[in-house]
Amino acid sequence: MRTFLKWGLALLCGGIIWGGTPLAHAQTELPGSLVKVGHYTASTDYLNLSEYYQTTRKTTVTVQYRPTYHAGKTQQRRLTLPQGTTVAGYLTTQKVGTHLQQALLVYSSRLSYALLSHAQPKGYTVDPIADTDATPTVISGAQLTAFKRVPCPKYMVAYSHGDLYAGGIAAALSPAEPTGTSLRITPDGVVELLSYDANTNANLEFYQRPDTQAKITRTNFHDPYRDLYFAHDLRGFNLQRVSRTGTQQYKLTIENLHQPQHILGNPLKGVAGTFDSLYLVSGVPYYTFIGFDGASN
User: Fold this and answer.
1) Nearest Cα residue to 32 out of 57, 18, 11, 49
2) Which spans in the chain are helix H?
3) Which of 133, 150, 167 is the endpoint of a domain?
4) Where is the signal peptide, in residue numbers (predicted)?
5) What does the pLDDT average to over 119-147?
6) Which helix (H) or strand (E) holds 177?
7) Residue 32 in contact with residue 43, Cβ under 8 Å?
8) Is 288 domain-assigned?
């Protein structure tokens, strides 16, 4: 679920609870589990719980794109995923005729811009609204053998879809949509720095060409620190130079402050509360939406 869905709910919130005890040190991938988020005990059914799959061979999937600036219809394109590509999604069943068959629904809009741009029509942007149960990126039948289940990659921050936004506590608790800088970590292992484009059609503001991007070549995770390594420097980040040769020359440190923020919902109106996690990215404050405290009507 992307940030624009969170902010719509946040406008109806009734109050705020500040962070307390830490969120669990590592993400559990088990639905129906209970974890501590600050002072609140939350069900993983309502947190941003993703499953991750990796391609075992080169395969193609359908991705939907929307007009970026003009009015028009969506377009679907075939995108080739190289062998070893990690994607986020979930395994479900779909009715085909009178039978049920297994299907893997892939969240294609979370993939890196570098990968998505291979199939992107001119003047179009990947459609984040399509990442629902009705997504066109459905893998079924014999093509399912091209994907294997893998653990959550170490470079993905806990219970986040990988989208972090510049700002500290005040920004995380604000009902206003973020309009500054976004750091995105994609399932296929790319870090992107994105600027807000106010001229796009709705919900596409943070999906344009990154200001800078690079493939993650190594990850070290020792809670609360997550160190990401790159072959070259990244403009806009304060990276540490750790080597003069090879593919691990620069390091970006992401620190989990373990101060989750809870915005209360409105039970009388059937609106769930929301959670955000606070991070320091090379010392700069960021936050990320990690889920809800219950169901909404």
Assistant:
1) 49
2) 3-10, 113-116, 169-173
3) 150
4) 1-26
5) 91
6) none
7) yes
8) yes
Q: Are residues 183 and 126 in the same domain?
A: no
pLDDT in tens, 243-265: 999 999 999 999 999 999 999 99
Q: Copy the structure tokens of residue 4.
A: 């624009």
38 plus 169 within the same structural domain: yes
Q: Which tokens belong to 134?
A: 């009705």
The pair of three-digit structure tokens given for residue 67, joined into one six-digit string: 């007009």
Residues 45 and 179 in one domain: yes
Residues 136 and 192 in one domain: no
Closest to 48 (Cα-Cα) out of 66, 23, 65: 23
| Residue 166 shares a structural domain with residue 37 | yes
Question: Could you tell me if 56 and 108 lie in one domain?
Answer: yes
Total tally of structural domains belonging to the chain: 2
pTM above 0.85, yes or no: yes
CB-based contacts of 67: which residues, under 8 Å, 6+ apart? 73, 74, 123, 124, 125, 201
Closest by Cα among 206, 288, 292 to 12 = 292
* Amino acid letter, 228: L
71-106 tens-digit pLDDT: 999 999 999 999 999 999 999 888 888 888 899 999
Alpha-carbon distances, residue 173 vs 6, 150, 195, 275, 288 (angstroms)? 11, 33, 20, 9, 11
Assess contact for 119 and 111: CB atoms under 8 A. no
Q: Do 81 and 143 belong together in one domain?
A: yes
Is 297 inside any structural domain? no
Pick the closest to residue 251 from 229, 231, 220 (CA basis).
Answer: 229
- Asked whether residue 135 falls in the same domain as residue 24, the answer is no
SS3 of the chain: helix, strand, coil, percent, to 5: 10, 40, 45
Domain boundary residue among 134, 150, 166?
Answer: 150
**Spatial strand order in the sheet of 124-126:** 75-81, 59-67, 124-126
Mean pLDDT score of the chain: 89
Q: Which domain holds residue 45?
A: 3-49+153-292
